[in-house]
Amino acid sequence: MLDSFFKITERGSTVGREIRGGFVTFFTMAYIVALNPLIIGLAKDGTGKYLGGDGSHPNLAMVAAMTALMAGLLTILMGAVANFPLALATGLGLNTFVAVGIASHMTWADAMGLIVLEGIIITVLVLTGFRTAVFRAVPQQLKIAISVGIGLFITLIGLVDSGFVRRTGAGPVPVTLGDNGNLVGWPIVVFGFGLILMIALLVKKVKGAILISIIATTVLAIIVEKAFKIGPNFDGATGKVNPKGWGLNVPALPHDVVAKPDFSLFGHFSLFGGFHVQGVTIIAAILLVFTLLLSDFFDTVGTVTAIATEGGLIDGQGNIPNNERILLVDSVAALAGGAGSISSNTSYIESASGVGEGARTGLASVVTGILFLLTTFLAPLVAVIPYEAATPALVIVGFLMMSQIKEVEWSDYGIGIPAFLTMILMPFTYNISVGIGAGFISHVIIRLVQGRGKEVHGLLYFVSGLFVIYFLQSPISIWVAK
């Protein structure tokens, strides 16, 4: 029954590989359950209140429970409806923008209302066929460039989250090796062990290489923490920074395994409240929704392309199976994230780790989703896995995605230069949409200069124009304010 519904054999996979892939994806992105509360839950809105409850104090457990619930339900929906190995959860970057750029100017309910509105708009764009049409208007080689760029991006995410690469905070170079040019602390050793183990297992073609590595490295991390009492790299209670500490979770066996979840955040949004906030003009509110929309729209285009390419799920015409359903579920996820008061939910590029483990169907997503639902009760267990144990998977998957670079026709400047800008700007700006926008705009300009403007799809002209507005939104806001 599973094979027939998910087309497992047809896609060259097995039930075992799908289950392993689902576990790997979960372990690679489970950090969002702990991280989203630190971003959304510790921020105050424009009235000085925290999200949830009476707003007088942080409600991290509520945010964590709703984050896991939404991730679980939406990822299962992606697997069951779209049959695609893609997991969804609160979007990193988007949640920071919501906390700092939106909620700080209004109430949390008003901010979440704007996200719900963005989700409604993007869902309508899918139902009318517009989002799918734009997806197909992008030249195949630019899609490959997007995939490679995302590979570089998630590699950098893995290196930064592990502490192997860190921000300098000063000087001409924004990042450096470890702490001021030196690798320090046992967590880096644990990361190095995990990366080497994962490489060795992959070279030996061991089934479940990524999953085995994550589990083995987590066990090592628990032993190391027990022996040396390292602690976190940042203590929120005291504000002290320990460059030799663990990145997010301190690996230790939990005292409690089960915790009762609180889902009372659901439904706390005001759909049009953001348009009636003192000090926020209607134009400014529209630009906020537009920013959310554009980022959500093209982050997903890049992510889906990368996952499909890595899994060999793209046909000869560059089409992805069930593409419309994939985009529809992703659009509904944005709406659901706002309704759950945890910021916009979107497709996760970390799903590539599961694909690297062999996942090819929606069964892997169903497995990942079930694990997220269990996390609403078993959050203490998720907190055992440190960044340093999970991030080697991102580095390895980045390598696998980088291998597609040979397909780009570098001799054609109309493709080569946009592809180059797409690839480098994603990791350098820490933003998928920026890389995609730069690639689209440069492709259109170069083709016009070459006198080959007719080769560019009309929708690409329109989308490139939207990206110009996206890049110039700050001066536009200043101009409107005057």
Plain-language structure description:
By secondary structure, this protein is mostly helical. It has a two-stranded antiparallel ribbon with strand order 1-4. A two-stranded antiparallel ribbon has the order 2-3. It is globular, with a radius of gyration of 22 Å. Helix content is 62%, strand content 2%. The mean pLDDT is 88. The chain has 19 helices and 4 strands.
Give a quick set of tags describing it.
globular, two-stranded antiparallel sheet, 62% helix, mainly alpha, 482 residues, two-stranded antiparallel ribbon, single chain
How is the topology of this model organized?
Blueprint (H helix, E strand, L loop, with lengths): L1 H5 L8 H15 L1 H11 L18 H23 L5 E3 L3 H9 L5 H20 L2 H8 L2 H23 L2 E3 L7 E3 L8 H18 L5 H20 L53 H29 L12 H17 L5 E3 L3 H6 L5 H21 L4 H16 L10 H17 L2 H18 L8 H14 L1 H9 L1
Antiparallel strand pairs: 1-4, 2-3
Helix pairs in contact: 2-14, 3-4, 4-12, 4-14, 6-11, 6-12, 8-11, 8-15, 8-16, 8-17, 9-10, 9-15, 10-15, 11-12, 16-17, 17-18
